[in-house]
Design goal:
There is one protein chain. The chain contains 18 helices and 30 strands. With about 625 residues, it is α/β, with parallel strands linked by helices. It has an eight-stranded mixed β-sheet, sandwiched between helices. A seven-stranded mixed β-sheet has the order 5-4-17-16-18-19-20, with helices on both faces. The radius of gyration is 24 Å and the shape is globular. The protein starts with 7 loop residues before the first helix and ends with a helix. About 55% of the residues are buried. The structure holds 5'-O-[(S)-ethoxy(hydroxy)phosphoryl]adenosine.
Length: about 625
């Protein structure tokens, strides 16, 4: 079977084969790659205990497939184009050959710093080519990368360093974000005060922000690599060896470290990238995500490089120096495929069409959307003003846990419908269930979205806590992976994602656990208790609404709100700051002490009329007082 689908008929045939003969189907795909040893067993699985293995017994190194494999055929082709934050600064490009060399050097550097196969390496970097280089350098020597988005606070960094017992942190002096330079090294310094496992910090010079180097612990990147050879043999990895950990928020507790392994993730990132975007040789592809999120992992670095593509990395923000920056970059680099998030589309749409008009955007042929539901207005604006009515929009649904895209149109193949992620990719066997886990068959149904069969890119565990992983994803419904999303299947069998049905909110495409934000708010010395819910936000998709009980009603509410925002920024990062804070005297609780979030959600949505049944509340009068407070 040809890995690249070219028509709806081929899609249907591929889908059918992937369901009827999944092992043969994925074995054929995996044969596209360089293996050091072929696998013995294509798939073994058990969802109840959650044990999934793909390509067991196979041995390989993913970087040989991202880099070495391409040297002969496209060694001089550009692998990475880097567009800096400041449009007047110099663009950097790396060919496959140059990237290969840089990765080997960095891999030798890691070894020289004592990193060994299986060690966890934390990466806390801005969007610079070195972020991709060091990811691949880890993979080259079998170290496991754990990237932490450089907008997270010192406390969040500490939590992640400690959970994964990282030995080393790779960071930079600072990061440029629009008109600002943010000191990253100082955040790392603060995090390391309470992260005992870290003994080494490698610091990339980037913003020239002054930093303090701790003797015996800290070393400059450029000094550390200066003596390293650019030859580094790839370490032999088992198909199921860990490739990376990526922390993501769930409905309870602290973020968990989603684990992806080598071969299955590789096949999935490559297969989905090729088929969804229909990448053709020579295309310039740009995904605006940050490498700190799964989209950056799979669709800036691994998917494109496995496919021999040219991938653009952008350091800046969509509104600097003005709201035309994305469009300027597209024209400057003749971008053919552009992949971004609905929040970015909505915020640029709000700035006015005059920022788009100066640019021709004629190189574009495919537009992607990811991370949150895209509303019809944004979809249409994207289609008309960015795509000029001639580009395909691929609305791609997936998750950190799925490793890659699961439901999406195939560009220029699958007929699209605004706000619909359309159809599952080959290998993705979906099931909609009701609250009791009964399958909702047929079309025109709405329920909880589950997957009933393993796909190569799925998570394998959460780091250090397999039982939590099993409970989280496989215990809600027997024998099913539960996504946490609600979903509709329409008359045509097309899928439309409605949003999270658990206690996760999606703010600007960033996942946030309500419990996580509550715990942060509760760190304020005068806060007794809090409850956080999401509410519809015109730009961010969802905003964060916090109901807060203090030891006594604050006299200076605005001051107290500012303090709470600061505490949240410090505990998690600015992205978790509530949009609205309401001080309340009590929270609506059932007699068993459970907060009735349904009521809080309705009030946050501005729906104060019909709040449904409140008779089970311990003190129904609380609701009246919250309602009145929300209105005031
Ligand atoms: C949401 C991001 C609607 C969904 C790749 C999911 C989407 C969560 C879409 C995962 C989409 C992602 N339409 N909702 N096209 N893509 N989501 O782990 O709620 O950061 O569960 O992965 O984002 O977020 P995560």
């Amino acid at each position: 079977m040809n890995p690249r689908i070219k028509s709806m008929a081929e899609y249907e045939a591929a889908y059918q084969q992937s369901v009827e003969q999944p092992e043969q189907f994925w074995a054929a795909m995996a044969h596209e790659f360089t293996w050091k040893k072929k696998w013995d067993k294509t798939l073994s699985w058990n969802f109840n205990e959650f044990d999934v293995k793909w390509f067991e017994g196979g041995q390989l190194n993913i970087t040989e497939n991202c880099l070495d494999r391409h040297l002969e055929t496209r060694g001089d082709q550009t692998a990475i184009i880097w567009e800096p934050n400041d449009p007047t600064h110099t663009v950097r490009t790396l060919t496959y050959r140059e990237l290969h060399r840089e990765v080997c050097k960095a891999a030798n550097m890691l070894k020289a710093q004592g990193v060994q196969k299986g060690d966890r390496v934390c990466i806390y970097l801005p969007m610079v080519p070195e972020a991709a280089v060091i990811m691949l350098a880890c993979a080259r020597i079998g170290a496991i990368h754990s990237i932490v988005f450089a907008g997270f606070s010192a406390q969040s960094l500490t939590d992640r360093l400690t959970d994964a017992e990282c030995k080393i942190v790779i960071t930079a002096d600072g990061a440029f974000r629009g008109a600002k330079a943010i000191g990253l090294k100082e955040i790392v310094d603060e995090a390391l005060l309470t992260s005992p496992t870290v003994t080494r910090v490698v610091v990339l010079q980037h913003t020239m922000t002054p930093v303090t180097m701790v003797e015996g612990r800290d070393i400059w990147w450029h000094e550390a690599v200066s003596t390293c050879s650019d030859v580094c043999e790839a370490t032999v990895m088992d198909a199921e060896d860990m490739l990376f950990i990526l922390y993501t928020s769930g409905s309870t507790g602290k973020p968990k470290g989603v684990v992806h392994t080598t071969a299955g993730y590789m096949v999935w990132a490559w297969y989905t990238f090729n088929n969804v975007f229909q990448y053709d040789p020579g295309d310039i592809y740009w995904c605006t995500a940050d490498v700190g999120w799964i989209t950056g992992h799979s669709y800036i670095v691994y998917g494109p490089l496995l496919s021999g593509a040219t991938t653009l990395m952008f350091e800046g923000v969509p509104t600097y120096p003005d709201a035309g920056r994305f469009w300027q970059v597209i024209d400057k680099h003749k971008v053919n495929i552009f992949y971004t998030a609905p929040t970015a589309i909505r915020s640029l749409m709000a700035q006015g069409d005059e920022f788009v008009y100066p640019y021709s955007l004629e190189s574009l042929k495919t537009l992607g959307s990811v991370g949150e539901p895209i509303n019809e207005e944004a979809w249409q604006w994207y289609f008309d003003n960015v795509g000029k009515g001639k580009c395909w929009i691929v609305d791609t649904w997936w998750q950190t846990e799925t490793g890659g895209i699961m439901i999406s149109p195939l560009a220029h193949i699958t007929p699209t419908k605004p706000t619909f992620a359309t159809l599952p990719l080959p290998g993705v066997q979906l099931m909609l269930v009701d609250a009791n886990g009964n399958e909702l068959e047929g079309n025109n149904v709405e329920g909880n979205l589950c997957v009933k069969f393993p796909w190569p890119g799925m998570l394998r565990t959460t780091y250090g806590d397999h039982e939590r992983c099993r409970m989280n994803y496989f215990a809600t419904y027997s024998n099913l992976y539960f996504t946490g999303d609600g979903c509709r299947r329409d008359y045509d069998g097309y899928y439309r994602i409605i949003g999270r049905v658990d206690d996760v909110i999606n703010v600007s495409g960033h996942r946030m656990g309500t419990a996580e934000v509550e715990n942060a708010i509760n760190e304020h010395p005068h806060v007794i208790e809090s409850a956080v819910v999401g509410f519809p936000h015109p730009i961010k998709g969802q905003g964060i609404y916090a109901y807060v009980i203090c030891d006594h009603m604050p006299d200076h509410a605005d001051q107290r709100k500012r303090e709470i925002l600061e505490v949240v920024s410090k505990q998690i990062g600015p992205i978790a700051k509530p949009d609205k804070i309401q001080f309340v005297a009590g929270l609506p609780k059932t007699r068993s002490g459970k907060i009735m979030r349904r009521i809080l959600r309705k009030i946050a949505e501005g729906e104060t009329g019909n709040l449904g049944d409140t008779s089970t509340l311990l003190d129904p009068s609380v609701v009246e007082s919250i309602k009145n407070g929300a209105l005031s």
